[in-house]
Batch of 4 targets.
Target 1
Amino acid sequence: MGLFDALFRSSEILGIAGETLEFALESAEASHPNEYMGMLRGTEASQLGLDRDGLVITDVLVIPGTETNSVSATVKTNQIPNDVRSLGSVHSHPNGVLRPSDADLQTFGRGSVHIIIGAPYRRTDWQAFDSHGQQTTLDVIDVELPDAEDFFDFTQADIDEELR
């Protein structure tokens, strides 16, 4: 997706890819008893074989320098990429509470969807919120994600095309 395409893409978030949700749940569980935090990125639904306009959350970026403990996760905001595919955040609450804290609400300004995952980190132990901390619905979508190995399979022509 080039910059022009990104500026005029659909802003509707259709949901989160099932594999992406599983990754976030597993990462949160692996971080327990500390919180886990990452930034969410999306892909145009049409690039995933869906016949709809909108975005699907497909990636979780772990930001270098993120500090976590059992009650908080702090991201160094200067390390967050200025990314047109950025949609929001995901973090865990090891205590299992699926409501945003006051500190969470302060971080919700960056992006339009924020996911909180709670212990014991099952497929049902998460909730999505909008940028104001209001609970929202986020569908889990079964799509085939590109192979991670394909991420590094590109040429200079691919880079030039992306920059156009």
Target 2
Amino acid sequence: MIGLWSGFLMGLLGSFHCVGMCGAIALSIPMDLSTRLALIRDAVLYNSGRVITYTLIGVLLGYFGETFFKSGYQQWIAFELGILIVIVYFVPGTLGSKFSRWLGLSYLTDFIKKGFSWLLHRPSPATFVLIGMLNGLLPCGFVYMAGATAVLADSMTDGVLHMAGFGMGTVPMMLATAISSQLISIKVRNVIKGVRPYLAMLLATLFILRGLGLGIPYISPKLPDPNQKEAVYCHPVK
């Protein structure tokens, strides 16, 4: 079942990866260090911005997911997403970089960096929220996996809840990092980084199984065939 709790669990598991990828950004924000309460307030504002962005992404992906579900094409989308995840994790790093540039992700990253640079010199409550929103747009493998799952939601609402839950699941670890960067050691981060490909393969397997429509409840349910027309029964006139 795709929804708030599925997203929260994915975000919670992926938050260790987030610490390595976005922890430096969180620590570079000019938060108020005068008191612990002020620091927590600014960290909450920053993380709220990230959750807002993930939720807005969920609106878009949830819309597509509902459209695919109603048209009967969600089964094929799930299968193709599973295959794509497998390919991405076996693609050499240099080829992956070229692919990212081809998609325009490097331009997005440059835009976000410029936005960070401009906002960091203008600290305010609104600034922390905006920095968090920009942070939510950074290219990230776990966000892609969460987004791919949102596309498989049966309704737009479920897709939105999944991405909102994903954002909220990342908050505890990111909040802890902003308050104390020493809570998660480099060794623990490396262990999580090593587990990441296995989590990706597990997700890819679930996508492929869902796409096959084997009739297994929740894992591989039968989905409607878009080319199969409903039978029309005509009762003879007596």
Target 3
Amino acid sequence: MFTTAAPTKPALPRDLFSAIADLKRELNAVVLAHYYQDPDIQDVADYLGDSLGLSQQAAETNADVIVFAGVHFMAETAKILNPDKLVLLPDLNAGCSLADSCPPDEFARFKAKYPDHLVISYINCTADIKAMSDIICTSANAVKIVNQIPADQPIIFAPDRNLGRYVMEQTGREMVLWQGSCIVHETFSEKKMVQLKIQHPEAEVIAHPECEEAVLRHADYIGSTTALLKYCQKSDRRSFIVVTEPGIIHQMQKAAPEKQFIPAPSLNNCACNECPHMRLNTLEKLYLAMKHKTPEITLPESTRVAALRPIQKMLSMSV
């Protein structure tokens, strides 16, 4: 009788932090990480940021290898900006529910209904959607970018309906919204958050604009991930209810260790407010990606070139 041997796990160094530092030097690599990554990954990153900051860093880096500790669309953006560099993503399955909510074929048909509309797409979308867009934005610069568009120019905003609605409120502009959303930011419970406010009456509620309107109306401050981090450092308050992916709390605690940060509750008693895609990346996978130079992000050149123009437009409008 034959038995199949269990697959052997790859050998890992005892000190992953030191091994990753060695590989950075050997490969001339830079590790870019989003605030929603595991704390260990945040601690080894050369640059930590939100989508706008990471895009700016990807555009400016002199590294030969970009290791993107984030999700697939973020690594794609780095590749769009750096076609001659090796771009690695620790886990290719690290996708994005928001990006998945906007299939390219369906969006192309949607866009065709509004031929006179300018397309502004949130960076949380695939390279194919970026290629169909006129301008890319992030939660940090969406209001600023929309305010620069002539008042008589109609706009399609994709793919996040919650961010789109928030931008409409802030700018007074009517826009046609693609009805996409992020599973993490739609999982917060308004009822449980109100209960949490009662339990912590001294706490300020700080929220990401991807959250639903019912949740945002309870917020004392609304902003991008980086804006939330900066706000809690400057605020006189000593405690905060944080309504976004709780990975950012690691940096909040490092920046203001004397303050309290309370993750907002989800609809169910689960870890649903943690992005399951972001959390697929681990320190071990990051090391193995650098060690073996895979998984690599590749794109058809026609898609890359088409997607580059709206990203460059965003960067120029964000100065």
Target 4
Amino acid sequence: MDPKAAAMASEDPARQAMLKAIPHLRAFAISLTGNSTYADDLVQAALLRGLENLDKFQPGTSMQAWLFTILRNQFYTEVRQRCREVADPDGVMVGNLATMPEQGARLDFNDMQSALARLSGEQREALLLVGAEGVSYEEAARICGTTLGTIKSRISRARTRLAELLDLEPEEDLGPDRLVKATLFLQAST
């Protein structure tokens, strides 16, 4: 110990009691951990916490018992934290935990609803019957009271108009979205 620290410790009985408790703290820490290196780290953490909270120490009580309590609490806090942690030095598990953002689908749905509302009633009706409800072209023609050719024409025009309203580019926007494509590209390149 450096002479200045020794002089400070000799002046302050609480600090002197802390220094006197170090060998006992170390023995206790080794009994808890079974590892002298980890025990030394625990002792150091307990002493630092004790110094930080020295104002909470009640004179007349046992400094050693107070520091034992701090050390024991520190040890069990670290044990609980380690139980929740998973060793992943290469980051493989973290890489597998990625989730796609959900807001994109909701925004796309809102855009689609707005675009559908801008179609004519006849085009929207034909498109929803065939596209959303899964009704055949023939059944849609019967439901709408028109011919098969008219239904096909309405659906074709509705699809073209939706593509314009949604600013869709067939090569980019049909199939996986840009975020999915970027993720797949990153995974393929690693």
